[in-house]
Design goal:
364 residues, Udp-n-acetylmuramoylalanyl-d-glutamate--2,6- Diaminopimelate Ligase, Chain: A, domain 1, 3 domains, six-stranded mixed sheet, five-stranded mixed sheet, 11 helices, globular, metal ion binding, DUF34/NIF3_bac, GTP cyclohydrolase 1 type 2 homolog
Length: 364
């Protein structure tokens, strides 16, 4: 396989279209046309990670965090970012980063945290609003089933846990082709009325090109009439954070002790334990202070995240317990998630979980 083929598989799972605007995801270093000798899956790409890739004959690193986050104006090796990139280039190693594209995935980073905690009744904490569109097209009644099925096959018509969703209205369409037309139905230069079905389906924005290609291929008309609308609807299967419930209520202190053990935390910094018991749990891997108000609005008893500042803890008030479990600790199982997904899709070359511990924080 070449690198681009692996990227295509990754982006079926976590499309880069859904990464945050501030992020830098995708292929950061290397040639997408290179053949893959092996892929090293890691949380971070550092010099030590590149060295591990070399030792294990991997010329492709699949990383959660991007080693290049802001622009590089020089490559002189003056800092760890430049040294890492230089080492990768010298050894013909490509680097791909997925980051917030996976954060926003329903089965991504936060679902993994929820799984480790044993949460049930899970849902996205902050659903996305800019990820759903609607296609409306007009099809001859005799061809409606064929076009509808083609759109479903291309990925349209899925709403939450349901698929093959559409709305159909029968009516009469009219058209007249000019002298350059080649109508499939009717005659050029004459007004024609046709019994048609107005077919409406929603679709995720990253599939628009594929869905339109399917529409044009399956539709019988020379000129396909269609409309696309951007919807304000929240996408319940895409967004930041997750909230769920413990199967049984827990004492707050006991719960945090279990979290510390499960995530191998050197320490957990938390706000006052204002709750008598913990049942509803919100999580957001990595830096999640921006979601404190969302966790409170969702009536969570506790919010597990990382990188909370001193004044962030004041925002808890008497409403919630805030717990900073560490950035690395909250995201450490992400590489296992990627490995599990890719190993089910790829069997033609080695997939290797990185052994290098990239956590820059140590505790006494």
């Amino acid at each position: 396989m070449i690198i681009q083929e692996v990227i295509n598989i990754i982006e079926e799972f976590a499309p880069t279209r859904y990464a945050e605007d501030f992020d830098n995801v995708g292929l950061l270093v290397g040639d997408a046309g290179n053949e893959v000798t092996g892929a090293l899956i890691t949380l971070d790409t550092l010099e030590a990670t590149v060295e591990e890739a070399i030792a294990k004959n991997c010329n492709f690193i699949i990383s959660f965090h991007p080693i290049i986050f802001s622009g590089l104006k020089k490559l002189t090796g003056k800092n760890y970012v430049e040294r890492t990139v230089l080492k990768a280039i010298k050894n013909d190693i490509s680097i791909y980063a997925i980051h917030t594209a996976l954060d926003n995935n329903y089965k991504g980073v936060n679902d993994m945290i929820a799984e480790k905690l044993g949460l049930v009744n899970r849902k996205i904490l902050i659903p996305r609003k800019d990820s759903i569109k609607k296609l409306v097209t007009f099809v001859p009644r005799a061809n409606a089933d064929e076009v509808r099925e083609a759109l479903f096959k291309a990925g349209a018509g899925s709403i939450g846990n349901y698929d093959n969703c559409s709305f159909n209205v029968e009516g009469k369409g009219s058209f007249r082709g000019n002298e350059d037309s080649n109508p499939v139905i009717g005659e050029k230069g004459k007004v024609h009325f046709e019994e048609e079905v107005q077919l409406g389906v929603t679709f995720p924005v990253h599939k628009q090109a594929k869905i339109l290609k399917s529409l044009f291929h399956s539709h019988p008309y020379e000129e396909v009439a269609y409309e696309i609308y951007a919807l304000e609807n929240e996408n319940q299967h895409l967004g930041m954070g997750m909230i769920g419930e413990l199967e049984t209520e827990r004492n707050p202190e006991d719960f945090l002790k279990e979290v510390k053990k499960t995530f191998h935390c050197g320490i957990i910094r938390h706000s006052e334990l204002v709750k008598s018991s913990i049942k509803k749990v919100a999580v957001l891997g990595g830096s999640g202070a921006f979601a404190i108000s969302n966790a409170i609005s969702a009536d969570a008893d506790v919010f597990l995240t990382a990188d909370l500042k001193y004044h962030d803890f004041y925002k808890a008030g008497k409403n919630i317990v805030l717990a900073d479990i560490g950035h690395y600790e909250s995201e450490q199982f992400t590489k296992n998630l990627l490995y599990s997904f890719l190993s089910k899709k790829i069997s033609s070359f080695a997939l290797i979980l990185a052994d290098t511990n990239t956590n820059p924080i140590h505790y006494l």
